[in-house]
Amino acid sequence: MKDLTKGKPSALILSFALPIFLGNLLQLTYSLVDTRIVGSFLGEDALAAVGATSTLSGLIIGFLLGLSNGFAIITAQKFGAKNIADMKKSFAMSLVIGTGISILFTIAGLLFLKPILHFLNVPKHLVPVAKGYIAIIIAGLLATFLYDACAATLRAIGDAVTPLIILAISVALNIVGDLFFVVVLKTGVKGAAIATVLAQIIAFVICWIYMIRKYEILRLQKEDFKDPSPIMVKKMISAGMSMGFMSSLVNIGTLTLQTAINKLGKDIIIAHTAARKITEIFMIMFSVFGQTMATYCGQNVGAGKIDRVKRGIWLAIVYTAIWSGLTIIASYTIGGWLVYLVTGSHNKTVILNATNYLKFDTLFYIVTTLICILRNAMQGLGDHITPLISSGLEMAGKIVIAATLVPWLGYTGVIICEPIVWFIMVIPLLIQTFRMPVLRTEKTDGKYIDICDRKEAIRYAIEHGRPGDVIVLAGKGHETYQEIKGVKHDMDERVLIKEVLEELKK
User: Fold this and answer.
1) Burial, 363: exposed, middle or buried (Cβ in 10 Å; 0-12, 13-18, 19+)?
2) Cα separation of 196 and 189, whole Å?
């Protein structure tokens, strides 16, 4: 466990973000491995079939991931407030609610899969292969959610390392499974999907066993599932659905855009699949610090430490801005090699279009930095509406562009789509940043005086107090010490008050 309410924010944020970064990087290898093995062993038609459905799987899985992360925000707040009883109930409720939603998504997805593929404009000759792949992915949604929920809960209590280790095991199993099912058993794209689902199931089982053995506070009992506070349930649904829909709105826009891309031919489908896979790697740091801010802000707002929240947000923006610069350099130097690495294709049309996408879009990643950090921080602070508005604007923008610019400009319209939408969706986030009382620093005309010595400050307040005044000693609470440069010194405000009062009597 790691308490993010104490210690140097910069060190805490980086140490917490590193395992999340490695975990997200490993998570990407699930799809990257599928993509490369399918492209290398099954050919471009199979690769196009997987690529044509990638936005659909991203939509559903993204919602469930957002749902689990949203639930975990409430868990983080309860942990930060040291309310272990409610923390356990929030974890229990996340499993109950999330399981129900996952089952509904699975049933609906399998029942309406054929019309969904038709809506996506998947080429007719690719439909049978695409359907076989995505159906298996949908069938494994419950396992995907359960692992995500357990991993998110571990991060909520400050353990970001364990999910990384378990995910590494799962990825290794996925790679072995891909090779076994696709290369050895010759099961086609269905084998790649089976390997992914089996790896997710194993990841959940390992994570669950570790949690209940390692952390007593996560050992759920029957009473943890009974009589949850209506207020807490409301907050959980609000946070979970907000982050779930935030992800879904983004992916709905991307899904709509994919329907336009699927009309541009196999080469463009493959090119965009490659560009998006690389983009996911490039944007991984935005997601990492976004997830970090959700937990960091959740714990610190639960503990009432707002100054640490502001400092943390600023540091996260700086770190991700540096990363943005590195992605630009990579796009203009090794972009073509990265496209080949992902697809295994030497097709010049594929490589040219994919690299053009990367070169243009990375120039505007600084905007994405602000979006990812601010909307996740707002979720951690309890604002679930503004991030939804921002994501809704992204969805609307992509739908409009899919209907206008793409038919007119072809793949160039797809390339310029993202930056246009980013500039639109950052507006409500920036406005709310300056409006939220918890983030806003206001100056008043009131008089004040700075006194560094705690005892002298108390003396001044007592001496200058007038009849009817209330003196509030804030900041220390029940602590009987003062920490200076890592060294604890005895200091009990109750003792200080007694000393001051006795001295004033003389």
Assistant:
1) middle
2) 11
Do 391 and 466 belong to one domain? no
Q: Give yes or no for a contact between 289 and 374, defined as CB atoms under 8 angstroms apart.
A: no
* Phi and psi torsions of 488, nearest 5°: -90, 130
Question: 238-287 pLDDT, tens per residue?
Answer: 888 877 877 777 667 777 777 788 788 778 888 887 888 888 888 888 88
E strand or H helix that includes residue 387: helix 386-403
Its pTM stands at 0.63
pLDDT of residue 30: 62
Q: What is the DSSP letter of 487?
A: E
Domain annotation covers residue 321: yes
- As a whole number of Å, the end-to-end CA separation of the chain is 50
Number of domains in the chain: 2
H/E element holding 392? helix 386-403
Residue type for position 37? I
Radius of gyration of the chain (CA): 26
Assess whether 106 and 227 both reside in one domain.
yes
Tokens of 320: 């991700």
**Structural domain span for residue 458:** 454-505
Annotate 281-341 with DSSP letters as a single string: HHTHHHHHHHHHHHHHHHHHHHTT-HHHHHHHHHHHHHHHHHHHHHHHHHHHHHHHHHHHH
Enter the tokens of residue 200. Answer: 């997710």
- 171 shares a domain with 274: yes
- The average confidence (pLDDT) of the chain is 81
The continuous run of DSSP H or E covering 490 comes out as strand 487-490
Of 4, 1, 123, 103, the closest CA to residue 53 belongs to 123
Those residues with Cβ within 8 angstroms of residue 388's Cβ, 6 or more apart along the chain or in another chain: 242, 245, 246, 249
Residue 443 in any domain: the answer is no
363 and 214 part of one domain: yes
Tell me the β-bridge partners of 481. Answer: 490
Indicate whether 459 and 419 sit together in one domain: no
- Rounded CA gap, 12 and 312, in Å? 9
Joined tokens for residue 481: 């010490």
Same domain as 500, residue 368: no
pLDDT at 83 over 90: no
Residues 490 and 391 in one domain: no
Is pLDDT of 143 > 80? yes
Total Cβ atoms within 10 A of residue 206? 18
